[in-house]
Write a structure and sequence with these properties.
The protein has a two-stranded antiparallel sheet with strand order 1-2. The radius of gyration is 19 Å and the shape is elongated. Helix 2 runs antiparallel to helix 3. With 108 residues, it is mainly alpha-helical. It has four helices and two strands; from the N terminus they run ββαααα.
């Protein structure tokens, strides 16, 4: 939920976010960040393992599995981001969501 370096919290006053909404959004983003950090660490490990397999001309099936695992993790991370965005959108009123989308569109 960023707009060229700014987050939804930078527009708190403009969006008229309540303290409750801000708390809910922060919780959603904290959960997302925890999941993303864990998956990034897993991706790093898989990347090192693949590099090792490549250098040793390791088993092709192991390499294929490693690549699939990396793709699955990347897909999972992207999906988690989409889910978090939807959850945040549900926290906002329809007027706030319309204004937030307008802010995001003008930043693109």
């Amino acid at each position: 939920m960023t707009t060229q370096g700014k987050t939804i919290f930078d527009f708190k006053a403009e969006l008229k976010l309540t303290d409750k909404q801000e708390k809910e959004i922060r919780e959603i983003l904290a959960e997302l960040n925890r999941d993303l950090q864990l998956n990034r660490a897993k991706l790093t490990i898989l990347s090192f393992e693949l590099e090792d397999l490549t250098q040793k001309e390791g088993n092709l099936e192991q390499m294929k599995k490693n690549l699939k695992d990396q793709a699955d993790l990347q897909s999972s991370m992207r999906y988690a981001d989409i889910v978090a965005t939807r959850r945040i959108n549900k926290v906002l009123s329809s007027e706030q969501l319309k204004k937030w989308r307008s802010i995001q569109a003008s930043a693109r």
